[in-house]
Amino acid sequence: MAVVLLLTASIASLTTAAPPVPNQLTDEQFWELSASMSETDGVFRSDNLLSNELNFQYVIPELVSVARPGRVYMGVGPEQNLSYIAALKPSMAFIVDIRHGNLDVHLLYKALFEMSANRSEFVSKLFSRKPPGEISPSSSATQLFAAYRQQPRDKELYESTLKAVIDHLKVQHKFPLSDGDLDGIEWALSNYFNFGPDIYYNASDASFAPRIVGADAGFGRRGGGGSSVTYADLMTADDGTGMERSYLANEENFMVLKNLETKNLLVPVVGDFGGPKAIREVGKYLKSVGGMVSAFYLSNVEQYLASDGKTSAFLSNVATLPIDDTSRFISTGGGNRGFGGGGSMNNSRLRNMFVETRDYVK
């Protein structure tokens, strides 16, 4: 009995002694985390400036009923992560993507969130369109994008926004952006400017993307499918029950992201899911601060891991993360191992991370 009590006390002591997930990171800590966790830049078949998963919100009602809020979110890719984050309200988030260009897209988003007081200002800066007068804080995403779709692009606004973004990141945050980072940020913003809210997955021509973007030029505009789902479509979609849950659906959702970004708590990382470092470094860090992963959005990356023979390496990496029985994978289309998959990018599923990785724990 004494041994049991002593062991229990020791475990409680260790648990109590573990520092909490930080409520804010300094600029230096943010950059160091991102850089130290990152692997060598890789490539993908497109620049992925936005997703093409129209029904990605369909899993959110179940997700928020199972995965615990206030924990740590992980994901891959561009803006769809932001809507899952708005729903889960995590204390911290890590976006791991094989392309350095995705890191630059999230640095662009970071600056725009911090520089914008509300959704309308954010959309105005993102697409270089002047704010329409009829938008109010209570406007729906449908109303917001219907108004902005009518606004012409504004070259002066684009140029001033690009300068402000770079100044914000380099001067205010003092991030040591490389020339490649500057090219990546400019590439992203220029495409949002050129195509506006009607930009879609294959709109940009990846063959012209800067090298750092990591888009395989051989695929050109063909990168990964023929979807013509637009940014506006993604933001005005609902969760299948009629409820709009995108990160621009309402001001509350927008503020979840603005607060995380302002506190440097959404950290982009360059990494291969089946690689030797990125996911494991996230796990090591989270364990050091008492963090727990609530959800890990995979998109359809698993189909590429399978074709490269990296599935076991990926699951071994995930097994190093702090997770429990409520932690969930969010996977899409052909990435749904064990569900038949198929080519559809509208077939999102939740899967138990703990169950799928327990055989890989060492």
Q: Count the helices. How many? A: 15
Overall mean pLDDT stands at 89
Q: Write the element-wise H/E pattern from the N-terminal end onward.
A: HHHEHEHHHHHHHEHEHHEEH
Rg, Å, rounded: 20 Å
The fraction of residues assigned to DSSP E strands is 5-15%
Low-confidence stretches: 1-19, 220-226, 334-345
- Bin the helical content: 40-55%
Strands, count: 6
Shape: globular
Q: Strands of the biggest beta sheet: in what spatial order?
A: 3-2-1-4-5-6
Biggest beta sheet attributes: 6 strands, mixed
Give the class from helix and strand content and strand pairing.
Answer: alpha/beta
In total, the number of domains comes to: 1
Question: What does this 3D model show about the protein?
Answer:
This protein is of the alpha/beta class and about 350 residues long. It has one domain. It has helices at about 1-15, 25-35, 60-65, 80-90, 100-115, 120-125, 140-150, 155-170, 180-195, 230-235, 250-260, 280-290, 300-305, 310-320, 355; strands at about 70-75, 90-95, 265-270, 295-300, 330, 350. The chain has a six-stranded mixed β-sheet with strand order 3-2-1-4-5-6, sandwiched between helices. Strand 1 (about 70-75), helix 4 (about 80-90) and strand 2 form a beta-alpha-beta unit. Helix 5 crosses helix 6.
